[in-house]
Amino acid sequence: MTADALVRLRGSACGQPAHPSRPTWQHGRVTAATHSPLFPRVPDSADAVLEGLDPEQREVATSLHGPVCVLAGAGTGKTRAITHRIAYGVRAGILQASSVLAVTFTNRAAGEMRGRLRQLGAQGVQARTFHSAALRQLQYFWPKAIGGSLPRLVDRKIQLVADAAAACRIRLDRGELRDATAEIEWSKVTQTVPADYALAAAKAGRDAPRDPAEIAQLYAAYEDLKRDRGVIDFEDVLLLTVAVLQDRQDIAEQVRAQYQHFVVDEYQDVSPLQQRLLELWLGDRESLCVVGDASQTIYSFTGATPDHLLDFRTRHPGATVVKLVRDYRSTPQVVHLANGLLSQASGRAADHRLELISQRAPGPEPVYTEYTDEPAEAEGAARRIRELLAAGVPAAEIAVLFRTNAQSETYEQALADAGVPYQLRGAERFFDRPEVRKAIAALRAGARFGGNDTLLEDTVDLPSQVRAVLSGEGWTPQPPAGSGAVRERWESLAALVNLAQDCAAARTGATLADLVGELDERMNAQHAPTVQGVTLASLHSAKGLEWDVVFLVGVAEGMMPITYARTDEQIEEERRLLYVGVTRARERLHVSWSLSRSPGGRPNRRPSRFLDGLRPGSGAHSGRSGSGAPGSVERGFTGATASAPAVPRRTQRSPARCRVCGRTLTDAGEMKLMRCDDCPSDMDEGLYERLREWRATQARRGGQPAFCVFTDRTLMAIAETVPDEAGELARIPGVGVRKLNRYGADVLAICAGRPVADEDEEERDGTDANSSKK
């Protein structure tokens, strides 16, 4: 049971940019809470663990008895506080390392926590996600409790749901399939059985993708199918662990004998099922420390609820409560906006909001920009990002955050057009990339047989060794031109080179073997090194991360709050989601919105209601604290000056419907075509092929991937629409102002059956003409 299934992360800060930290708490100044130097020296005593903590963090660290509730605002150093608490308890002999279980919600957060604890001299503490801790226990006790081996765990349940739907003769499109899968997950984490789904969904205000009776039928068929195939899913891991601990008192006592002290991070995100598991781990003891912020509850659709955090003092009347409100991450200007957002909030979470106090020097005011349409907004963000890169801001310190993943494509195209490297958070994992796997294999071989490798003969340190090895895998001192697949592969290798440089700077005499060990541990924890590309991410996936510069895009009614957020509770969660986005920024924050979706569209959008009273020119709001609206409003693309006139409140937008069968469209690709994928197409196949040939030529000339010119979907939409003038072409999603200006004449000529001028031919003609003049 004590065998560690996850290799512990060595040096969680390795590969991250080093930020200077203040040495001690004095004169109102404090050690930076969210950054630490690489591989710092392990404190030589328990008291030394407390050095550099502010008074509130120190109170957390020294409150080791009884229940403790830490209410920690964004950027206030909560991870620092709880890891120093564990380390102080272990170093002081109050806590036994092997008896502490710290749980959080992501492998990355758990890996970071293990790394920090090791740096503080508290090795042996178990820091895991709820699921990995439960799975470890389930694997150990299954033969004793049930017999045999644990059923196979399926990574993704969506195919099983599809098979269950087919068995029930329920036809689901891709969007409905995803939504139905989410409903099943919600049901399981809220401990709702199929027979009770309809009533529970109605009580919770769930917006089911199909008739609740159909979802209940599908849920029951899914459970039967799993049983028939002998597999379990992610939620079953928790359900089965709960069942074993409830039914077998002897096993529950064995677990409780192992773990005497519990720490729960991000407690506002705990589901009813996770709370039940925590209660079974605890038994009748109260050696528990929870950390959370109700204002960052953004996962209620998965069953998460802040009620457990807000009710903690009711369940534990004698609990010690500590509030962390000193914000070390963001400038006063960013913090002011974050506080302003929450000052307008309502509901129970808002009643427990924390007023943050920035500990950083003043920075620039947030910039608010209005654009005519979404492509112009994306191009404006790309233009500003290119300016930041030219000014020396690292690409890895810039993020573009949006409400839905469907918004990503527009920004991918805009950044590609601008020649800006980017990485899409939530896409292929770093260590799963083929070039990374090959590079690590080469580094491992170099570490093992380096004495016989001629590439390493003239190398003198770790970075030069890594550069020499990776030069054989495609790494070059200068990045390749463009931003396509070749550039992405180079960026992956460059991230490994940068990691080697950071590790060498942090650890004197570091070797290739040390680096390979670091990479193996990071691979197990999925803790990727920093890739030098602008991050594109949804607001949900950005939780727990931070950047120097953040672009919050699409902050308009209908997107923020999202159209389907109708109840007061749903609206307030959307506000909290924007609050999370704002608090990701350390220094610079750009907030933008567009008046219409596509060029030439009706300008009937308005900025998000959440910005009322906070952005200049938007009027005062009725909040509980002073309003004031610092910042600057700009007009994007139109060239107008500040203080844009108010835009009329947008009317309810009619849903996009398939022009063939009339079904409501939710998938971004289908909305681009204005038809279902499986509905018949009236596309001109010959025109489509001519467009593809033209696109290949353009991509070759520009040294970029074909999709950077136009995606397949956009070409299909053009071939189905066959536009005959620029305005009609501009209304096709994926054809922005920049692409219209650059490619519009060619595309319209192809659609009209006219020849397209050959640029290479024109250049040759010009050369011949000049030669004749000579």
From TrEMBL:
<comment type="similarity">
    <text>Belongs to the helicase family. UvrD subfamily.</text>
</comment>
<dbReference type="InterPro" id="IPR013986">
    <property type="entry name" value="DExx_box_DNA_helicase_dom_sf"/>
</dbReference>
<keyword id="KW-0413">Isomerase</keyword>
<dbReference type="InterPro" id="IPR027417">
    <property type="entry name" value="P-loop_NTPase"/>
</dbReference>
<feature type="region of interest" description="Disordered">
    <location>
        <begin position="754"/>
        <end position="774"/>
    </location>
</feature>
<feature type="binding site">
    <location>
        <begin position="72"/>
        <end position="79"/>
    </location>
    <ligand>
        <name>ATP</name>
    </ligand>
</feature>
<keyword id="KW-0378">Hydrolase</keyword>
<dbReference type="InterPro" id="IPR014017">
    <property type="entry name" value="DNA_helicase_UvrD-like_C"/>
</dbReference>
<dbReference type="InterPro" id="IPR002121">
    <property type="entry name" value="HRDC_dom"/>
</dbReference>
<dbReference type="Pfam" id="PF13361">
    <property type="entry name" value="UvrD_C"/>
</dbReference>
<feature type="domain" description="UvrD-like helicase ATP-binding">
    <location>
        <begin position="51"/>
        <end position="331"/>
    </location>
</feature>
<dbReference type="Pfam" id="PF00570">
    <property type="entry name" value="HRDC"/>
</dbReference>
<dbReference type="GO" id="GO:0004386">
    <property type="term" value="F:helicase activity"/>
</dbReference>
<dbReference type="Pfam" id="PF00580">
    <property type="entry name" value="UvrD-helicase"/>
</dbReference>
<feature type="compositionally biased region" description="Low complexity">
    <location>
        <begin position="615"/>
        <end position="624"/>
    </location>
</feature>
<protein>
    <recommendedName>
        <fullName>DNA 3'-5' helicase</fullName>
        <ecNumber>5.6.2.4</ecNumber>
    </recommendedName>
</protein>
<keyword id="KW-0067">ATP-binding</keyword>
<dbReference type="InterPro" id="IPR014016">
    <property type="entry name" value="UvrD-like_ATP-bd"/>
</dbReference>
<dbReference type="InterPro" id="IPR044876">
    <property type="entry name" value="HRDC_dom_sf"/>
</dbReference>
<feature type="region of interest" description="Disordered">
    <location>
        <begin position="594"/>
        <end position="655"/>
    </location>
</feature>
<dbReference type="InterPro" id="IPR000212">
    <property type="entry name" value="DNA_helicase_UvrD/REP"/>
</dbReference>
<keyword id="KW-0347">Helicase</keyword>
<keyword id="KW-0547">Nucleotide-binding</keyword>
<feature type="domain" description="UvrD-like helicase C-terminal">
    <location>
        <begin position="332"/>
        <end position="587"/>
    </location>
</feature>
<dbReference type="InterPro" id="IPR010997">
    <property type="entry name" value="HRDC-like_sf"/>
</dbReference>
<feature type="domain" description="HRDC">
    <location>
        <begin position="681"/>
        <end position="761"/>
    </location>
</feature>
